[in-house]
Amino acid sequence: MDAEDSVDRHIARWSGIVPFDVGTEAVITRIQLLAKHVGHAKDRALAETGLQAFEFETLHRLASRGAAARATPSELAAELLLSPAGMTGRLDTLEKSGLIRRLRTAEDRRRVDVELTDEGRTRWAAAMRLRGVAEQAMLAPFAPAEQAALSALLKRMLLHVEAGTP
């Protein structure tokens, strides 16, 4: 491939100034830049649906629970790594926006479940659809077999890192 990207220019700029392995620098810097591009694409998709990232993440956790789309606030807080107070504030915002509702359970009136409203499910689904379109557009240069090969290589790298190997 003859086209020069921003990483090629980065490497040329720093070569001879800072010691680094060119191959490693090229791969890692491209991964970092692609991750930023994915983040920006996801942010644009959320903006189109009027959702903030924290709202989407909470709706996403609820939607992952299937048709019922219910969880307790403490379950959500644990999944989202939030304090109980932080979760309460987030749920207050989502409830005021009509995206979730809090329900007292019949068995124990002290227990509260949180569930997606129809509007919450609709907005979450719209954001998922737009995010998917953005992600597919990023992979457009690759044929399906190339996408599978790239996925396999990245999986092997991730498994290596997740195993705690430096």
- From the helix content, strand content and strand pairing, which structural class follows? mainly alpha
Q: List low-pLDDT spans.
A: none
- Our count of helices gives 7
Secondary-structure element string: HHHEHHEEHH
Overall pLDDT confidence? 92
Classify the beta-strand content into a percent band. Answer: 5-15%
Strand count, sense and closure of the main sheet? 3 strands, antiparallel
User: Could you give the distance between the termini?
Assistant: 31 Å
Radius of gyration: 21 Å
**Strand line-up across the major sheet:** 1-3-2
How helix-rich are the residues, as a percent range? Answer: 55-70%
What does this structure look like?
This protein is mainly alpha-helical. Helix 4 (73-80) crosses helix 5 (84-96). The chain has helices at 6-14, 22-49, 53-63, 73-80, 84-96, 118-138, 144-162, and strands at 70-71, 100-104, 112-116. A hairpin with a 7-residue loop joins strand 2 and strand 3. The model has no long low-confidence stretch (mean pLDDT 92). The chain has a three-stranded antiparallel sheet with strand order 1-3-2. The relative contact order is 0.11. Helices cover 66% and strands 7% of the residues.
Keywords summarizing the entry:
mainly alpha, three-stranded antiparallel beta sheet, 7 helices, 166 residues, elongated, 7% strand, 3 strands
